[in-house]
TrEMBL record:
Signal peptide: none annotated. Residues 91-108 have a biased composition (Low complexity). It is a multi-pass membrane protein. Involved in protein export. Participates in an early event of protein translocation. This is Protein-export membrane protein SecG. One of its GO terms (molecular function) is protein-transporting ATPase activity. Residues 91-115 are annotated as: Disordered. It comes from the Bacteria. One of its GO terms (cellular component) is plasma membrane. It comes from Alteromonas lipolytica.
């Protein structure tokens, strides 16, 4: 149960991390904002957006790595289910004798079938 919950959390954290990395502006974008390109009209203020986004990305990255390590540890400790293709040397059981298929006629040494 905990394994499935961690997998779902791992997926959500990964998607959020991808989203936050794509939303962030590059370091070169600060130069344009300082010359009046609308940097003061952001939701978090002129410098609050960078701090919030950077901190959130760091927290999500830390969660991503911690969940990765926990899932790796849980996967290594799981008991492996037996694989039905693992041992192919075991013969398949023969068909039952009471089938509807007629027996083939016996051949003699000359290769001719008796009439």
């Amino acid at each position: 149960m905990i394994y499935q919950v961690l997998l779902v959390a791992y997926l959500i954290v990964a998607l959020l991390l991808i989203g936050f990395v794509l939303i962030q502006q590059g370091k070169g974008a600060d130069m344009g904002a300082s010359f009046g390109a609308g940097g003061s009209n952001t939701v978090f203020g002129s410098s609050g957006s960078g701090n919030f986004m950077t901190r959130t990305t760091g927290i999500l990255a830390t969660l991503f790595f911690v969940i990765s390590l926990v899932l790796g540890s849980l996967t290594a400790q799981r008991e492996k289910a037996p694989d039905e293709w693992e041992n192919l040397e075991v013969p398949v059981s023969a068909a039952p004798a009471d089938t509807d298929v007629p027996a083939a006629p016996a051949e003699d040494n000359s290769g001719n079938t008796p009439n």
